């Protein structure tokens, strides 16, 4: 049994990691919405963010290699184009459409609609047989879907175009996270480290989103006075700095998500996500003036109930002595299917320790969905 000091240290560490995750996640949501008020090129912004993330990932990989003295993983072209490319394309479209939607919808509607990603993740998990059918999943789907309907029904700030964009992004996000689960479970690829994964994804994400950018924003951006037709240097530098801040936030968000999972569990991230959505809606109402009726708030409560049931099922199956029906790939004579998304690792001073209390934590190191 862990001593009170160890328990307190873990609690403090978990709270600290959750707060860091909140800062980056909520921060980039409000930052992008604020930036879109004066800069109407969300796809270009996303491409610049991808470039920044790739540069920061490259620097981090180099620093890690110098620190450990071990070379980082580098995929061959066959694995890169056949196994990484589908994940990269889906991720690029998910992020691009999400940022694009900020031109049309409020943060509250964006947050609620994005919550529907759970439905599509469950759907594609069943399609790819990452998950077996379960009667409780029907209740989860009904709660989240009905909550989303109640939230958007007769909303005074509803925008159909933006809503469809976020809903499509959520649909693609279901494909994205399902394929990411499969990708990061492949032990022979060696992409369990989030920095290595981010490094390999960004170039293909850039190339996947670039044609959509050219078609929708290329001509308009080339004649814009904010960038290519700028008359003074200071406005150009200001725009680039503002866009770079968003890229740094995007890198911090991706890294904080994986760090939270690796040091705690995916269950912790799921629970933290529920409260994050509530905080986002409250801040949107207070800072951005988003208006929500009683029916909208009831819809949010119903949706949160569905997500909470989703997390509860995850907790139950993670602690079950039987083979979980959720969040675990069926083993088919292949050891690479048994590799978790991120292995739980303590600090260097605790690497050789084998406490019994850590066994429960290790059981929670499931696949992030």
Automatic annotation (TrEMBL):
Q: Which InterPro entries match?
A: Sugar_P_trans_dom (IPR004853), TPT_transporter (IPR050186)
A family per Pfam: TPT
Cite the residue spans of the region called Disordered.
347-369
Localization of this protein: Membrane
Membrane protein topology class: Multi-pass membrane protein
Q: Which residues cross the membrane?
A: 12-32, 38-59, 80-97, 103-128, 135-153, 159-179, 199-216, 236-255, 267-288, 294-313
Q: Enumerate composition-biased segments (Acidic residues).
A: 348-369
Q: Which CDD domains match?
A: TPT_S35C2
- Do the record's keywords include Transmembrane? yes
Q: Would you say which domain of life the source belongs to?
A: Eukaryota
An annotated GO cellular component: membrane
Which UniProt keywords are present, listed alphabetically? Membrane, Transmembrane, Transmembrane helix
Record domain Sugar phosphate transporter: where? 16-309
Protein's UniProt name: Sugar phosphate transporter domain-containing protein
Q: Which organism is it from?
A: Oncorhynchus mykiss
Q: What is the lineage of its organism?
A: Eukaryota, Metazoa, Chordata, Craniata, Vertebrata
